[in-house]
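Deviations from the work plan: none for this task. Representative record:
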Amino acid sequence: MTAQSQRYDQKAAKINLKGLTLLELEELVMQWGEPKYRAKQLMSWLYRRRVRAFETMTNLPHQLRQRLANLAYISEARILTRTTSNTDTAIKYLFELVDGSRVESVLMYDQDRITVCLSSQVGCAMACDFCATAKMGFFRNLTAAEILDQLITIERELDNEKGVTHVVFMGMGEPLANYNQTVKAIRLMTDANALGMSEGKITVSTSGLARQIRQFAGEQLKCNLALSLNATTDADRTRLMPINAKYPIDEVLDATREWALATQRPATLEYVLIRGVNDTAADARRLRKLMGRLPCKLNLIPFNEIEGADFQRPELNQVERFRRIVAEGHHVAPIRFSKGRDIAAACGQLRTIYEKQGAMLLSDS
Ligand code: SF4
């Protein structure tokens, strides 16, 4: 048995307190004959003071601390590499999880915004043609704890008091394909007893799972939703994003509209511009028309070129021309270049390079 699988086996036999809701923690402590309020105290140690050792939880009785040490643990994500961009303000993290799986997160600074881009799955099954993660295939869903651990570990490294201000689910994986754990992680991020973030500072990005978008609309969460659209005809979109064969543009826009009406928030349409694929004037005009169907704004993102992909970034003047056409009548955010181009910050790229070349090439830690 390797050291890693031993570590996994030992932990699998215990309860991970990270990722349990207040209700679940209350049930746990009450099963042990403790008063309900111990759950709030535990949450404060886990998410506010962020201690990892039960013996430091000094307002808990000795007997409870011992029971916790025997039956429970507090997960953490191990940083495998940390890569800082030379050209902009992004740091890419590669984490190793308890079973040896690897996922990526990105920390981005933009004036007073500090955003963390989180992964929700190990790999991804959506098979989008332009995506590095897609080329790895799908391994497994992350737990809510593993999603939170990325955020908490990165935040621990920050040297400012404000901490992370925004979270985006745009790393590896399709968050709505890991629906329950993603929603649970968001609830813990926004629970005042846990991380206490504002719902409006959290964005879930989806490739277009219409059924789950409708379900998400019913969650009473005032988060943001970004739909990765990337094409204006079903034929083009199915080629780029096979999920479109199941949920075509019409259906996914209807679902997104329902979400926007239920939450009273405009959706964000993400459109990655790829040279000669989806960047023509006709595409821009069709996109302008599609945008008329729902309350939304548009993020245009010139393609971040990845190794092994056949796609290229359009010239800047082509990007500008596209933007001008769509902007006649709609809100289009300023052109957003992916942060961390020199550190492989498109989803899945860091892990791919790490596994090809080994940690030494990328690590600055
Ligand atoms: S773009 Fe997102 S949904 Fe599509 S394959 Fe990549 S990680 Fe999955």
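The CA atoms of residues 45 and 51 lie 6 Å apart.
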